[in-house]
């Protein structure tokens, strides 16, 4: 049978095996998939599988891995109908967001999946995820980079890992699922990316220059140590900051060190994006006096974007060699429905 789908195995629980120190990535997944999916394989689209070397626990993810994935997709883009990326759940939301920005309205189906329990262990969720991902990857064009997990297809640019213990490990708190994969799968076509969203070939992303350490995250809490600001300001490799503020986008407006940080960051051409620490709702600039003036100081509005999406969008914009001014100018382009407009 000609393979319609290419599976890229990056590591993660789905392909892990128990070892002396706990679960660890293991090569040879093709054989284990064939064993575990058994006779159902005859009813599913054919696939080839490539294993990355080294396979990683996704806690070890770096932006370089996104570039490696883009290069592999570019190399095999014309040969397959769809692609499945097997990935650890810990940083799945980052990689799915990064690939959403790289590909825009993807010309090929690119679906992430993983599992909470490794393939082959009792009560594993891996078989159902693989089966659903294979069917969707070889099916009609979806346009969104997606995540197949626990009987749902979710938008890759909106994901959060919401549970380390439960089978429904992922959610898109500010967006509805793209599909419900019940006995009769229901695809919500109106929620998929539309014609107005640009498509990008993965070779464009493979040619980008992702810089480790280019983006930092700063989550506000009462009485911030000023040394945190100094460290960010002194680090020339750090070009942008995702500021996770309180509630509707509020900052400690009476904190002189914080106010100085915002001014000095602008003077040093560091881009700051404001998002909310809340799981839902995003920021509402201007709603409170405590956040007044942030926009005038060049702080960008992250709306209801997830921290992962804001982080990856900044990385993607910077990897294209943009200046701080160009990042600011391009920030508001909705690249993959990552934000409610
Ligand atoms: N630590 C694992 C990983 O992210 C967790 C998982 O895959 O569920 O690689």
Automatic annotation (TrEMBL):
GO biological process: amino acid metabolic process
Residue ranges annotated for the Asparaginase/glutaminase C-terminal domain, each copy included: 215-328
Domain of life of the native organism: Bacteria
Binding-site residues, substrate: 58, 89-90
Active site: 13, 89
InterPro entries with a match to the protein in the record: Asp/glu_Ase-like_sf (IPR036152), Asparaginase/glutaminase-like (IPR006034), Asparaginase/glutaminase_AS1 (IPR020827), Asparaginase/glutaminase_AS2 (IPR027475), Asparaginase_C (IPR040919), L-asparaginase_C (IPR027473), L-asparaginase_I (IPR041725), L-asparaginase_N (IPR027474)
Domain (L-asparaginase N-terminal): residue spans on this chain: 5-187
One Gene Ontology term of the molecular function aspect: asparaginase activity
Pfam families membership: Asparaginase (PF00710), Asparaginase_C (PF17763)
UniProt record similarity statement: Belongs to the asparaginase 1 family.
Protein name as it appears in the record: L-asparaginase 1
Natural source organism: Pseudomonas abyssi
């Amino acid at each position: 049978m000609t393979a319609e789908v290419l599976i890229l195995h990056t590591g993660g629980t789905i392909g892990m095996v128990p070892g002396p120190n706990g679960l660890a990535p293991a090569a040879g997944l093709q054989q284990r998939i064939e064993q575990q999916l058994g006779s159902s394989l005859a009813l599913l689209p054919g696939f080839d599988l490539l294993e990355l070397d080294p396979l990683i626990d996704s806690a070890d993810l770096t932006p370089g891995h996104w570039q490696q994935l883009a290069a592999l997709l570019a190399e095999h883009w014309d040969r397959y109908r769809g692609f499945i990326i097997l990935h650890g759940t810990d940083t799945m939301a980052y990689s799915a967001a990064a690939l959403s920005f790289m590909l825009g309205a993807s010309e090929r189906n690119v679906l992430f999946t993983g599992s909470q329990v490794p393939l082959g262990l009792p009560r594993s969720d891996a078989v159902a995820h693989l089966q659903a991902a294979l069917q969707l990857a070889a099916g009609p064009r979806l346009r969104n980079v997606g995540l197949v997990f626990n009987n749902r297809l979710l938008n890759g640019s909106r994901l959060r890992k919401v549970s380390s213990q439960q089978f429904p490990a992922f959610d898109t708190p500010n967006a509805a699922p793209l599909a419900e994969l019940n006995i009769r799968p229901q695809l919500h076509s109106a929620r998929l990316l539309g014609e107005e969203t640009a498509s990008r070939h993965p070779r464009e992303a493979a040619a980008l220059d992702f810089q480790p350490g280019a983006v930092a995250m700063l989550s506000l809490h009462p009485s911030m140590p000023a040394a945190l600001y100094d460290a960010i300001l002194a680090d020339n490799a750090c070009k942008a900051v995702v500021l996770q503020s309180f509630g509707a986008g509020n900052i400690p407006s009476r904190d002189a060190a914080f106010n100085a940080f915002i001014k000095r960051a602008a003077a040093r051409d560091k881009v700051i994006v404001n998002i909310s620490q809340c799981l839902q709702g995003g920021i509402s600039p201007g709603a409170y006096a405590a956040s007044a003036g942030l926009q005038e100081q060049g702080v960008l509005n992250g709306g209801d974007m997830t921290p992962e999406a804001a982080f990856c969008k900044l990385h993607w914009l910077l990897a294209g060699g943009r200046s701080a001014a160009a990042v600011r100018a391009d920030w508001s382009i909705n690249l993959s429905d990552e934000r409610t407009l």
